[in-house]
Amino acid sequence: MYPQRELARLAAHKAALRRNIALHRAECAAAAARVAQPLEWLDRVVAFWRRLSPLAVLAAVPLGFIVRRTIGPRLKILASLVKWVPLVFGAVRGVSAAVKARGASARS
Length: 108
Description:
Elements: H1 4-51, H2 54-71, H3 76-107
């Protein structure tokens, strides 16, 4: 049905396609491994945290207070920002909603 030369050309083309597919498959596997590295690290941290006894978790609370006392005075500006930023965002959102509502009522 097909001449021998065309069959050989098709076989070579098929082999080249298979090599390209294998190469792309390996590249995708390497990229997926790179993307999954942070998730693997997070999984290890979660597994470590679950292995800790409940008493060790309770010991983290006083340790947090100690760290807060040593670092806390330096972070007063950050604490005030954390305290006031939600209020500012709420006010901005309210003003923008009022402006949109006023624009919509003026159009109709």
